[in-house]
Amino acid sequence: MATSSTHLPEHAIAAYAQERASVQRMILEARWANLQRDDTYEHPDTYRDDQLHRIRRAHLVHLGALYDVLALRGARDTEVHDTARGLGTELLAHDGFHLPTTRRSGINHLRTAYADLHHHAGPRPRAALPPPAADQQAEPAALPGRYPTESRLVSDVLRSYAVAKACQNDGLTTDAYAQMRRHHMARGLLLWKASALAPADRAAAQAAAQAGHHVRKLDGHPRTTEENARQYLLEAYLEVLGEKDEDDQLHEPDCPGGCGGDGIVMATLTWDDQGDGIFVPVWAEPIDCTAGVRQEHDPDCPECHGHGYTYSRGERHLCCCLQPVDLTA
User: Fold this and answer.
1) What was the pLDDT predicted at 139?
2) Which terminal Cβ of the chain has fewer Cβ within 10 Å, N or C?
3) Cα 238 to the chain's mean position, in Å?
């Protein structure tokens, strides 16, 4: 594989040493794996058990590697670090190792799996790794205020793309357009954040600017500078979220929902049904924080009928038919 002289934080890890466009590639891989996994949920009867195993394993590996690289670049979003470790632990369980021996067992297994999946025979010799130049060791670049967290952006990148494809398949052209526009914004902002964490990654900064140019073109605006294009992404994204003219922070730092102020919490969505009432968590995703407001499942839900779970092929899934409980009623 051809490599460049650019040294990034993740290149110090053997599994990622040969990945030179790591963040851009990993976003695409995670997006593809997420779409494949979603299709297994929507059409479970069309997949064999071995196919389900491979698809869900690839999803854990690719999404885990993306979070791991963001963590290696020094993301301050604690969800990034927790999710990387969590996905590694889930991968251990998926591969039949239910009891990690150390806190880093999951991460180490994740990195080994990623290297194997990409046919990296082993670590590159230390001498072959180019030493980082002085300008490649710069401190993280400053970003505008009200910048979304990495975990929120990753979640939105995957969700908006999946919804856009579903809308396209259903002939909902307007909805598909809106979701794909949102996808380009979230992806561009994630690339911008990744480049800010590692200023040597100029390719990610340029890719973020290209996303900004694309969204501006969709909105009927002329081409502008790279910096203005990236700034446009942030303004347009916050406007979509309804945050542009509202409070800078979604929730209070001591939010009772446990989000720490960013409005996002991790929730287990899938468990492995091992029988005898034993369920092992195998998948979690960032979801919107409820700020401590009690919620219950809709008793009229056609999927779970109010008990909160659906089941398929030895797995239990959290039903998303939650609604706030009116305690004054």
Assistant:
1) 57
2) C
3) 18
| Backbone region of residue 125 per phi and psi (left: phi > 0; alpha: psi in -120 to 50; beta: other values) | beta
Strand, helix or coil for residue 269: strand
Within the chain, residue ranges assigned H as helices are 22-42, 49-72, 78-94, 105-117, 150-169, 173-197, 202-218, 226-241
DSSP 323: E
Given a cut of 50, the residues of the chain with pLDDT beneath it are 1-4, 123-137, 244-248, 328-329
Phi, psi of 236 (to 5 degrees): -70, -40
- Please provide the size of the chain in residues: 329
Instruction: Catalogue the long-range contacts made by 227-232 (C-beta closer than 8 Å, 24 or more residues apart).
Output: 230/188, 230/192, 230/205, 231/144
Helix (H, G, I), strand (E, B) or coil at 281: strand
Burial class of residue 189 (count of CB atoms within 10 Å of its CB; 0-12, 13-18, 19+): buried
Question: Of 31, 247, 261, which is closest to residue 153 (Cα–Cα)?
Answer: 31
CA-CA distance, 311 to 120, in Å (whole number)? 37
pLDDT tens, residue by residue, 216-227 = 999 999 989 999
Beta bridge partners of 280: 272
CB distance 212 to 229 below 8 Å: yes
d(CA 57, CA 51): 10
Backbone angles phi, psi at 296, to 5 degrees: -135, 160
Q: Which of 185, 205, 210 is nearest to 195 (CA)?
A: 205
Q: Which two tokens stand for residue 156?
A: 């939105």
Instruction: Please state whether 327 falls in left (phi above 0), alpha (psi between -120 and 50) or beta.
Output: alpha
Chain center to CA of 261: 19
If one counts every other C-beta atom within 10 angstroms of the C-beta of residue 168, the result is 15
